[in-house]
Design brief:
Blueprint: E1 2-7, E2 12-14, H1 15-21, H2 28-36, E3 40-42, E4 45-46, E5 53-55, E6 59-62, E7 65-70
Parallel strand pairs: 1-7
Antiparallel strand pairs: 2-5, 3-4, 3-6, 6-7
Helix pairs in contact: 1-2
């Protein structure tokens, strides 16, 4: 499984936006589709909330890619 790191700019980011920013979706709309299809897990649990607030320390998995979320500098 590929691992990518994502550095937050603020306290949190919406899940659908994170998928776009991390390069797993070409748009926020596509990110929402991935979430709705059940293709995304947050900290090992299936996530169905498209705009779930993702914070530092959380781990997202989608399409064979793991995203590790880091705190803003």
């Amino acid at each position: 499984m590929e691992t990518r790191h994502f550095q937050l700019k603020d306290e949190h980011v919406r899940l659908c936006d994170l998928l776009k920013l991390a390069g797993l979706a070409d748009s926020g709309g596509r990110g929402k589709q991935l979430v709705a299809a059940g293709a995304v897990t947050v900290d090992g649990q299936s996530e169905s909330r498209k705009t779930a607030k993702i914070r530092a320390g959380q781990q997202i998995e989608c399409q064979g890619v793991r995203i590790l979320v880091r705190a803003p500098e």
